[in-house]
């Protein structure tokens, strides 16, 4: 059955699926496009590829690691927090478009996705920037970040807000390995704040063991 592309009030979610459908089909350039549909697709919000540039950053070489042990698929980013006397924050993450079969095997084994592995999502930048605008909201508090990805926001909170404890969690064990690596790389700048990584699946019973123990989620 043909899809009616002329519907004026299609939901954004439906349009995003249309973006994915178009990418997978890879239609020949000679195939005519629906101009109205193209305009509607352009109106749908998408991930900003380079984030919103709320926190200045640049790519650096390996930090404190032997070059042979630093995977070619990884990159290290140096963030300069826009705060007085703020130390630099180093974040190791997977290069975009570097996915291998092992990633999918892990996803299948643990019944998870790899959204936290494929890129540094702009929402992390926004959350980290928000935290820097509200330092007092985290001071002396126990904080947990859910679905943290590479842990930028959690590390910013740990480094800049004088929180008593920060737990940076994700459901993907590969991502949590990166989080722990980033905690270790920035340990000298975390002061007295206790920081740890955690594998956390929201639908598992273990969640009940930590409920009620955090001030900020």
How many separate domains?
2
Oligomer: single chain
**Structural class by secondary-structure content:** alpha/beta
What share of residues is helical? 25-40%
Strand coverage percent = 15-25%
Q: Helix and strand succession?
A: HHEEEHHHEHEHEH
The whole-number mean of residue pLDDT values reads: 80
CATH topology call of the largest domain: Rossmann fold
Major beta sheet, strand line-up: 1-2-3
Q: Please give the count of helices.
A: 8
Strand segment count: 6
**Overall radius of gyration:** 20 Å
The gross shape turns out to be globular
Query: What distance separates the N and C termini?
Result: 46 Å
GO biological process, one term: methylation
Pfam family, one: Methyltransf_16
EC number: 2.1.1.60
Subcellular location: Cytoplasm; Nucleus
Describe this structure as you would to a colleague.
The protein is of the alpha/beta class and 217 residues long. The chain folds into two domains: 31 residues, no CATH class; 154 residues, Vaccinia Virus protein VP39 (Rossmann fold, 3-Layer(aba) Sandwich), CATH 3.40.50.150. It contains eight helices and six strands; from the N terminus they run H-H-E-E-E-H-H-H-E-H-E-H-E-H. Helix 5 runs parallel beside helix 6. The longest helix is centred in the N-terminal third of the chain and has 14 residues. The N terminus is likely disordered. It holds the Pfam family Methyltransf_16.
Secondary structure: elements and pairs:
Blueprint: H1 12-25, H2 35-42, E1 57-60, E2 74-80, E3 88-94, H3 101-110, H4 115-118, H5 122-133, E4 142-145, H6 152-160, E5 165-170, H7 173-185, E6 194-199, H8 207-210
Parallel strand pairs: 4-5, 5-6
Antiparallel strand pairs: 1-2, 2-3
């Amino acid at each position: 059955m043909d899809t009616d592309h002329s519907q004026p009030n299609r939901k954004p979610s439906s349009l995003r699926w249309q973006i994915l459908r178009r990418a997978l089909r890879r239609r020949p350039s000679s195939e005519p496009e629906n101009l109205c549909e193209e305009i509607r697709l352009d109106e749908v919000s998408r991930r900003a590829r380079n984030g919103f540039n709320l926190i200045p950053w640049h790519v650096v070489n390996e930090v404190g690691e032997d070059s042979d042990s630093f995977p070619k698929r990884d990159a290290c980013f140096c963030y300069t927090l826009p705060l007085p006397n703020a130390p630099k924050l180093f974040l190791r993450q997977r290069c975009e478009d570097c996915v291998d079969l092992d990633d999918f095997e892990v996803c299948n084994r643990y019944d998870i996705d790899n959204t936290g592995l494929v890129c540094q999502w702009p929402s992390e930048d926004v959350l980290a920037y928000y935290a820097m605008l509200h330092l007092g909201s985290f001071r002396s508090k126990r904080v947990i970040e859910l679905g943290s990805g590479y842990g930028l926001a959690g590390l910013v909170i740990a480094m800049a807000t004088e929180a008593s404890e920060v737990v940076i969690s994700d459901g993907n064990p590969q991502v949590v390995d990166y989080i722990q690596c980033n905690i270790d790389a920035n340990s000298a700048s975390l002061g007295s704040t206790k920081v740890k990584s955690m594998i956390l699946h929201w639908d598992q019973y273990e969640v009940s063991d930590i409920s009620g123990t955090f001030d900020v989620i």
